[in-house]
Amino acid sequence: MGQRNLQRLIVADSGEVTQLTSLVTGVTLHTHHGKITTVAATTAAAAEEEFVVTNDAVGADSVVVACVATYGGSGTPIVEVSKVAKGSFTVLVANLHASAALDALMTINYLVLGAVR
Q1: What is the pTM of this model?
Q2: FRET partner for 19 with CA separation of 20 to 30 A, picked from 9, 33, 39, 108?
Q3: What is the rounded distance in angstroms from the CA atom of residue 7 to the CA atom of residue 20?
């Protein structure tokens, strides 16, 4: 896939979803590129939490990347995709700070690479 085709895919096939209830509550968004707005995180210092993203654009062999786009609170959040399966992926949210808990919402961007099989 050339760069021009990838740019069209990202623009044409994107979406947004807002998480409800808690940081471990799953979300559903069926796009190759998207933004997830979490609830206000309360992850303790040096702790981790995970949630599942249901997404029919994800294949068993897809590569999914994620990053923190915005966060304005205490603590030091990072995200990674910890599991990929056909129809879903799991986002791990970790707080790297040694003493401060996470205390604000964050936006997470993701990109799915690879075709559904």
Answers
A1: 0.89
A2: 9
A3: 30
